[in-house]
Every structure is written in C-alpha cells, then in structure tokens.
Specification:
Strand content of chain A: under 5%
Distance between the termini of chain A: 35 Å
Oligomer: homodimer
Strand order of the largest sheet of chain A: 1-2
Number of helices of chain A: 16
Largest interface: A-B, 49 and 49 residues
Order of helices and strands of chain A: HHHHEEHHHHHHHHHHHH
CATH topology of chain A: Farnesyl Diphosphate Synthase
Radius of gyration of chain A: 21 Å
CATH superfamily of chain A: Farnesyl Diphosphate Synthase
Number of strands of chain A: 2
Helix content of chain A: over 70%
Largest sheet of chain A: 2 strands, antiparallel
CATH architecture of chain A: Orthogonal Bundle
Shape of chain A: flat
CATH class of chain A: Mainly Alpha
C-alpha cells in the first residue's frame, strides 16, 4: 500500500449510521402502525432505545478497517454499520433480561419500560410484570437480531458482500451466545474458578471488535493473512475493552455511563475485577463480599466493596491487565501491513477506547 | 401451464429436510465442542428438540408451491425448507418461554431440560431455575432464528434467491412478533374483547402457511398476481389450522400431540374456543371457568371445562368456523391458475391438515 488511505471521521460515521437507522425504524414503525397501536409502541420503545445509545463504535471500527484496506464505497458500508448496531442492541436487550437490568443508556430499556406499563395499566404484581415485560423485550430483541441480517437486503450492497457480512454476524452471535452461557453459569459457580477473560473474549471481543474490523477488512479485499493478524489485534483489544467495562461497572459515574455502578455486584457477576479482589482481600472481607453480592445492595454496602477493591490492589491489577492486553493488541496491529499513519490512527483510537468514561 | 407438474412426496421431503438439518447441527455441534462442553450441551438440547418435531409441514408447503408453479431444482429447495424449520423451532422455543411451557414434541423443551439441570446440579429454587433455564432457552432461540437466515448461505442457492427467502422469513417474523404481543396482552384483557382470529392470522398463518407457500411460488417464478391469490388461500388455511390447534390444545390426546391438553386453559390463553364457550355457557359456568383458568388445574377441573365447552356448543361452533375458513381457502385456491390436478392435491392436503390428530 503506497499512499495511506484517509481515515473516516468518527462523528460523521455516527451521524450517517444514525440516519440509516432512523430510516430503517421509520419504515418498521409505519408497518407496525398498520398492524396496531400496541405493536407500534413496541417498535417505538425499541427505536428510542436504539437511538439512545449513540457511540456507534462498531460501525466506526468497520469503516476504519474498510478504509485502512483501501475500501472506498462508504455509502454501502454505512448499512453494514447499521446492521452491526442492530445486532448490538438486540444482544443488549436479551442480555439485560438475563441480568434483570431495567435501565440502559440512562433510560428504561424494553423490559424496564414495560414493567412500568404492566404495573400501571394492569396493576400486575412485580413478578408477573417482569415476566410479561421480559417476554416483550425478548421479542424486541428477536426483531433486531434478525433485522441485522435483513437490513442489508435493501442496502445496495452486492449480494456476495451481503453474504460476507451475514457470515460475520452469525459467527459473532455464535460466540456471544457461548459467552452469555458461560456468564450465566458463572453466577452459580465458585467465583474463583470462572475464566472471566474467556467470557470477555467470547461475549464482547468477537462481536464488538473482531466482527466489525474483519467485516470492514474483508469487504475492502484484505487478504486472509492480513485478516488473521487484524483479528489478533481485535481480540486482544476486545478483552481490554471488556476489562475497562468491568471497572466502569463498579467505578463509573452513572450520570455518564447511563447505568448503575452497582449492577455488576448486585447480579454477582464474575468479573476479573471481582476475582482479583477475592484473591487479594482478607478472609473476613472475602466472606463479607461473597455474602453481600448477588442481591440488592445499599449505596453504602456498594461503596464499602469498592473501597476493598481499591485498597487490596484489585483495581490496579485489573488496570495492569488492561495494559497487557493493550500491548498484545498493538503487537497484532504492528504485524499487519497497514501504512504507518493508519497504524498511528488505530493506536490513537485504542487509547481513547481504553480511557473512556462510558 | 399445459402439463401438471408432479407434486413432491411428503415423506421424501421430510427425510431430506431432516438430513439437511442433521448436517447443519453436526457442523454447529463440532464448533460448539471446540468452545466447551456446556455450549456443546446447549446445542445438543436444541438439536434434539429440533429433530423431535418431525412433521416438516412448512418445508413441504414450500416445495409443494414450488413444484406447482413449475420449479424443478429440489436440491436447493430443501435448504429453504430447513431454514423455515429453524425459524419455526426458534419461534416455538421463545413462545414456550412466554407460556411457561416446559414440554414440546413429548420431550423436555430447552427450558424444561435446563430447569431440571439447574435444580439437580445447582439445587436452585424453582424461580431461579426457571430464570436461568429461560435465559438459555432464549439464547437457543436466538441461534435458530438467526441461523434460519444463514443456513441459506452455503445452500448453493443463487444469492438473489437467498435474498428472496430472507425477505419472506423477516416478513413472517415481523408478523409473528405482533401476534405474540397480542397474545401475551390478551391474557390480561377481558377475554371476550380479544380478537383471537387476528392473533391466529398474525401468529400462525403468516409464518406457517403464507411464508412457505409464497416462498416456494416466488422461487419458482410465479407472478405477483398468482402469489396474491395464493396468499389468500394460505392466510385462510392458516387461521383454520390454528383453530384446529386450539381444539387439539384442549381435546387432543397428549400421547399423540406430545403436549398437555390443559396447557391453554392453565395459561388462560384466549382462544376462539374459549371465547365461544364464555359467550354460550350459563352465568355460573362462566364465573367458574374464569375463576379456574390462568392457573394450574386438576385433571378433574380441566375435564369439567371440556364438558361445558362441548355441551354449550362452543366446540361445534369452532368446527363450523374451521369449515368457513376452509371454504375461503378453497375459493382462494380456485382463483389461481394452477392446473386442476395440482388444485386437487392442495385440497387433499388441506383436508389432512384440518383433520389431524397432532
């Protein structure tokens, strides 16, 4: 590659993907309205949630790799970005059901919205309201997960390219489901025996990093050898990204992250951060933490656990591990044949991803 | 169309679709095994369930329409049939979560299997076991619903044909989800105000009849006008089929249907049969039924309700309505330009569908 390709602008990608998604939802909402107001409402809630999450990181990664390998047809790539976002939001909706979360992006998620609805309109008890709202959320997720495949059909992408993207989407889902299963089972296991890094790789790295980057690279015509190197970069970056997410899950500012900072603890989620804490803290702290997590916590209880996490060195250990994966990602990146300026842009992106506040 | 095309053999279609599905699952199981034994098990349970349901009605309808309109490439059509079945089983898995059903095709469904697993292996209380098992079932359904799209990618179908099928699959899902939502909400509404026939159309007719028949017809090159007529046939047949299903849901033989014959009553499902019963029975019978349904019933209670359903004429009314939709379907069929022998074969199929025991 002689001349370094220009790299896409993050805000421009975000805007164009949002426009594409808006057009998709306009169409679906119109069709839903023709069926009935309740269905229009379900699509409306799903639409609101999808547009509330605005980073559009995965589309950006896809376009970044596409440009890096010399792709030039941005217009159709925006559709691929939109597909990646639908997969993402569909997965989040189903993940939130599993985790009993009712908020996402600072607003009610689909379950949260309908829990209020069923309690208000039908005066249902909490358990029944949860079952019905989770049912609707499951259906909303089904719509988005499959729309991720079909939004491509009218994109103007060549059929062969659509099939490339669909393969990546399906490979990613295959991996995410494995990760979700590990994660779900992990809540029930001896916390220290869970391979939390493997879960991060399966559940986050594949669909958030590997699929978008490889999709972009393959559509631009990158060789199999290049894609293999890029996937090393992507997988390691993805694990580092998830470790950051775990830190934000307990130390993030809810007004910035848009989600509670004690949800992971209340769900008893086995993060590397928690495992390092249990390994490093005193026996009595360990007993206290294991007794407290996995159920609703007061703000005071959560803060006490955070203090232990910091003081025993678990936060620092997690940060060091993020650095390790960051370095591994950079080695993968260095092994590619991308131009130096492109590599520099990737490195800058990585830094911004791993120092994010939300 | 001068010479009537030969129509496919139902057993041959079943065998070939099963072979295709077996090959699909072999591949997925091998990949799942490389991730870990738990994931292999999840795919295994999903595989067992998929193969336990053996009618393969939707693939047959698809091939029937394909042949009827002159299609000759059976090999690739088997892949379309497999896709329709994956959609079908994925939808059933999610539907069973909503309805709290744990059996399907006479065996544990995904939720049922994992409820036992979580109680046995982790000694979980019923509620927790249900949440975790429903979570895994949701994930299994996600895998099948999206695989319905991607199983086509390696089918040998031309890309343009794959896209035709994917559009039908997505249109069907869009409608089913609307029907599921109506159905879910119907449990909470005044039973007599629910439009149960509309639910049957959205939830069953579209994906079980309209999508398979139109898919086959479009792939064979049938005109838009023909497809419109065929869809009238399909939609009316689908509603009749669902009404039969409702009768089987209360009057079927569990050893033949593979599911309980009091599940609909226990779930408080608003079927046309139930509505006709509530409209026709005495005030005190009505009060008794409304008080009893929507929760677990003894066999004696269920039998009492069945007796009311029969005696008040609700069963006969439902059977008459099945005949009505049957006739409407035949009018749609008659309006097509299919050869007389093909129409005759379709009519024979309809009779067998509406007189089924399972």
């Amino acid at each position: 590659m002689a001349t370094p390709p220009s790299l896409p602008d993050r805000q421009a990608v975000r805007l164009r993907v949002n426009q594409y998604l808006e057009a998709f939802f306009r169409e679906q909402l119109a069709q839903a309205a023709s069926i009935g107001p309740a269905y229009y409402e379900l699509w409306g809630v799903t639409h609101t949630l999808t547009m509330a999450g605005g980073k559009r990181l995965r589309p950006y990664l896809c376009l970044l790799a596409y440009h890096a390998y010399g792709g030039t047809d941005d217009r159709t790539l925006v559709a691929v970005g939109a597909a990646l976002e639908l997969l993402h939001v569909g997965l989040l909706i189903h993940d939130d059901i599993i985790d009993h979360d009712t908020m996402r992006y600072g607003i009610d998620n689909v379950s949260g919205y309908y829990q209020k609805y069923y309690r208000r309109e039908h005066n249902l008890a909490a358990n029944a309201a949860r079952h019905y709202s989770d049912s609707l959320a499951m259906l909303a997720g089904d719509l988005l997960l499959t729309s991720a495949h079909t939004i491509l059909l009218d994109s103007g992408l060549a059929p062969a390219q659509i099939m490339v993207v669909q393969r990546h989407l399906q490979r990613a889902l295959f991996s995410v489901v494995a990760g979700e299963q590990f994660d779900t089972d992990s809540v029930l296991r001896e916390k220290t025996t869970v391979d939390s890094l493997r879960i991060a790789e399966l559940k986050t790295a594949t669909y958030s990093m590997v699929a978008p980057l490889l999709c972009g690279a393959e559509l631009a015509g990158a060789s199999v050898a290049e894609r293999t190197k890029l996937s090393l970069f992507a997988a390691n970056l993805g694990i580092a990204y998830q470790l950051c997410d775990d830190l934000l899950g307990s130390f993030g500012d809810p007004s910035i992250t848009g989600k509670t900072n004690q949800g992971d603890l209340e769900e008893g989620k086995v993060t590397y951060l928690l495992q390092a804490t249990l390994r490093r803290c005193t026996v009595s702290q360990r007993t206290g933490i294991l007794k407290a997590i996995g159920k609703p916590l007061t703000a005071h209880q959560a803060e006490k656990i955070r203090t232990v996490m910091r003081r025993c060195g678990a936060v620092a250990e997690t940060e060091a591990l993020i650095d390790d994966y960051h370095q591994k990602a950079l080695i993968g990146l260095a092994s590619t044949h991308l131009p130096a300026t492109t590599k520099q842009a990737f490195r800058a992106l990585v830094v911004s991803l791993l120092q994010r506040q939300r």
